[in-house]
Structure formats: structure tokens, C-alpha cells
């Protein structure tokens, strides 16, 4: 089936459809990962976005039920150079194409994804329509005009109710802004008793749980779209050991009086170099974000920058001078990507240990 990719600047790419037949509109972004496509499409942080994969062959090892980072695909679509319909892997259960079809996601293949990437790098992220229907230019333009870019996707991807994952270690409240499954796995592997709460859970309710620490998860969109969360975190960090990842990192910055901004095309991939200032060591990290912390805005806010991006020097990590609060912009849990920076989960455990010891004294 023929398919069309239409960008808001009027650019058209023609290819072939896979997955669901139909039309979808969203923000067009690119991801540079060579593998890990299943984890990428099931990452809730991609809610509302159409993902353009730069690596030319996608789907060659299939998909399976164990690699999903959430229960469904929140992305609006997938664009690839070539989709593999005959995957080879001992864990393979179905093709990526059939997974997308089952979950109602439109895919387009057979076009130059690196050309699309160059356009995004030059012009920035933009609205995009992908369709397998025979639509006119005016109909495609109407989809762009009707697209609501202000939608609160955190509300869509967050858990609707509080639930607990038993553990014998530290009590951790995970504020779910679209938490990836591997964040929970890393906490479970360290014995944590995890209570996952909706993104807008009140300060009172969280304090009633009486956790040893707060984990602020990744999630989609602009941190300024959830001002009520920023206000809650502003109070939480006064009392609780806190670790923020990605969107959680940005929310901490806002809660401490800093600012965030939308990047031209963001960081999305499994090969981003980050410098850990405290360790004087570079790490390769997994990233997925379109917003960043404004470096100048956190000066004189009792914040120490701990990590920087080796490509563009953006803020990749920070900690508070006096409070047991720290955060990173990248994904220490990987999935997909390297797990060299998983030591940050151990740091979170250590911070909770120290806080409990201080309280005992």
C-alpha cells in the first residue's frame, strides 16, 4: 500500500505503508539508535510523536513480550528506510509490523530517513502527517492545522491508580510521568519497596506513604505543562531524598527556581556522550528528550552541575548543594542503550541510607 509523509513546511516523501492502515499526525523527531526499536516505540516519552529511525534496517530481530517499556505504543507513528518482515532471533515472537498493526500505529517505509533527519536538524522538529490513504494536499494541510500540540501527554501515559510492588528494602514513591519499565526493574533489583503513583498525586498523599525516597520518572512533552507537579516537587524535595530522570530532571530544575527550553531537535538515541564532572569520566548514554535545563537559570540556586553533554554542552545532570536531591537528563536504565551509568541508582540508594542515618542521629 502506498504511503505519504507530509511535513508542515510542505515537503512530501512517498513510500510504502506497514502496520495499521490510516492517517496519523504528530511531532516529527529522529532517533539514531541502531537497535532497540521495540523499547523505543513502547517508551511513553514518545507520546504524540512520529519517530524517524536513521538506521536503515529496522525489525530484523522481531519483537517479544519481554522487551516492552510500557503496555502500549504511545507514539503516533514510525518511519523507517526498510522494515524486515522475516526476522531472525531465538526470542522473536512476531514482526514489528504486526505489532504496530495490533496496536493501531501507522508505519511508513521505503524512503530516505537520513534526508528527513537532515531536514529536522536544519529546520528543527516539526508537525508531520503520515498516511496510507489517498489524501489531497489541502486535506493533509488541514490535519496539520487541526493538530493540538498543547495536549498534556503526561496525563495520558501516567498510571491512573496507586499500586505497590513489594520489596524488603527502601520505600520509594515513583511519580509516574510515563515511567519506563526498566526504571522499575532497576529499583526492584536493588530490593526497593515501590509505590507507583499518578503524576498529579498530592503532597499529602505522598507523605502519608512515608517513603524513604522519591523517584521522578521520564515522560513526554514540556515540563511546564504540569505546573501542579512542579509545585508538589518543590515541597517534596525539602523533606525527601529525590532522584529525577529526564522529565523528572527538568521538573526538579523548575522546582528549584530554574528554567527549561525547547531544543531545536532534541537528543534521541543510544549513543550520546556525557561527561561526569565528579568522576572525570565520559559515558555513552541513552537519551530521549526535546527540552533541556537552561544552564544560566540555575546559577545562584544552590545547584551544582554534575554532567554535561559532550556534543553541545547542555546540562545532563545536577545536584543540590545541601539537599539529597540529584537528577540526570539521560537514561541510566538504558533500554535501549548502554547501562554504564546504572551506578546512579546505587547513588540513590546510598543517599537514602545517609538520610536515614542522619535522622537517627
Automatic annotation (TrEMBL):
EC number: 6.3.5.5
Residues covered by region (CPSase): 1-170
Lineage: superkingdom: Bacteria
Pathway(s) of this molecule: Amino-acid biosynthesis; L-arginine biosynthesis; carbamoyl phosphate from bicarbonate: step 1/1; Pyrimidine metabolism; UMP biosynthesis via de novo pathway; (S)-dihydroorotate from bicarbonate: step 1/3
Coiled coil ranges: none
Protein name: Carbamoyl phosphate synthase small chain
Role of this protein: Small subunit of the glutamine-dependent carbamoyl phosphate synthetase (CPSase). CPSase catalyzes the formation of carbamoyl phosphate from the ammonia moiety of glutamine, carbonate, and phosphate donated by ATP, constituting the first step of 2 biosynthetic pathways, one leading to arginine and/or urea and the other to pyrimidine nucleotides. The small subunit (glutamine amidotransferase) binds and cleaves glutamine to supply the large subunit with the substrate ammonia.
Active site, per annotation: 246 (nucleophile), 331, 333
Entry keyword annotation includes Ligase: yes
Catalytically driven reaction(s): L-glutamine + H2O = L-glutamate + NH4(+); hydrogencarbonate + L-glutamine + 2 ATP + H2O = carbamoyl phosphate + L-glutamate + 2 ADP + phosphate + 2 H(+)
Binding site for L-glutamine: 45, 219, 221, 247, 250, 288, 290-291
Enzyme class: ligase
Assembly notes: Composed of two chains; the small (or glutamine) chain promotes the hydrolysis of glutamine to ammonia, which is used by the large (or ammonia) chain to synthesize carbamoyl phosphate. Tetramer of heterodimers (alpha,beta)4.
Gene Ontology molecular function: any one: carbamoyl-phosphate synthase (glutamine-hydrolyzing) activity
Keywords: Amino-acid biosynthesis, Arginine biosynthesis, ATP-binding, Glutamine amidotransferase, Ligase, Nucleotide-binding, Pyrimidine biosynthesis
Family note: Belongs to the CarA family.
SUPFAM superfamilies the UniProt entry points to: Carbamoyl phosphate synthetase, small subunit N-terminal domain (SSF52021), Class I glutamine amidotransferase-like (SSF52317)
Organism: Clostridium aestuarii
Residues in Carbamoyl-phosphate synthase small subunit N-terminal domain copies: 1-131
Amino acid at each position: 500500500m502506498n504511503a505519504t509523509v507530509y511535513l508542515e513546511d510542505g515537503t512530501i516523501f512517498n513510500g510504502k505503508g506497514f502496520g495499521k492502515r490510516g492517517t496519523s499526525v504528530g511531532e516529527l523527531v529522529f532517533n539514531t539508535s541502531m537497535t532497540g526499536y521495540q523499547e523505543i516505540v513502547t517508551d511513553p516519552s514518545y507520546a504524540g510523536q512520529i519517530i524517524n529511525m536513521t538506521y536503515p534496517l529496522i525489525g530484523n530481530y522481531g519483537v517479544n513480550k519481554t522487551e516492552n517499556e510500557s503496555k502500549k505504543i504511545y507514539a503516533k507513528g514510525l518511519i523507517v528506510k526498510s522494515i524486515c518482515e522475516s526476522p531472525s532471533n531465538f526470542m522473536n515472537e512476531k514482526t514489528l509490523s504486526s505489532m504496530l498493526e495490533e496496536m493501531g500505529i501507522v508505519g511508513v517505509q521505503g524512503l530516505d530517513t537520513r534526508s528527513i533527519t537532515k531536514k529536522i536538524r536544519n529546520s528543527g522538529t516539526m508537525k508531520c502527517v503520515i498516511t496510507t490513504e489517498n489524501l489531497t494536499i489541502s486535506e493533509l494541510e488541514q490535519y496539520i492545522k487541526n493538530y493540538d500540540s498543547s495536549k498534556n501527554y503526561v496525563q495520558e501515559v501516567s498510571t491512573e491508580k496507586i499500586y505497590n510492588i513489594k520489596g524488603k528494602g527502601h520505600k520509594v514513591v515513583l511519580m509516574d510521568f510515563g515511567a519506563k519499565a526498566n526504571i522499575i526493574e532497576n529499583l526492584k533489583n536493588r530490593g526497593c519497596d515501590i509505590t507507583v503513583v499518578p503524576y498529579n498525586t498530592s503532597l499529602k498523599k505522598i507523605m502519608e506513604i512515608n517513603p524513604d525516597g522519591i523517584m521522578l520518572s521520564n515522560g513526554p512533552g514540556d515540563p511546564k505543562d504540569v505546573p501542579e507537579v512542579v509545585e508538589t516537587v518543590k515541597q517534596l524535595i525539602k523533606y525527601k531524598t529525590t532522584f529525577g530522570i529526564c522529565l523528572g530532571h527538568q521538573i526538579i530544575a523548575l522546582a528549584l527556581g530554574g528554567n527549561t527550553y525547547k531544543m531545536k531537535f532534541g537528543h534521541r538515541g543510544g549513543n550520546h556522550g556525557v561527561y561526569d564532572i565528579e568522576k572525570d569520566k565520559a559515558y555513552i548514554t541513552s537519551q530521549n528528550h526535546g527540552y533541556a535545563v537552561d544552564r544560566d537559570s540555575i546559577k545562584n540556586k544552590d545547584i551544582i552541575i554534575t554532567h554535561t553533554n559532550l556534543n553541545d554542552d547542555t546540562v545532563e545532570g545536577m545536584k543540590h548543594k545541601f539537599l539529597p536531591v540529584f537528577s540526570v537528563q539521560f537514561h541510566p536504565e538504558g533500554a535501549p542503550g548502554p547501562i554504564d551509568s546504572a551506578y546512579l541508582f546505587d547513588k540513590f540508594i546510598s543517599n537514602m541510607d545517609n538520610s536515614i542515618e542522619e535522622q537517627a542521629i
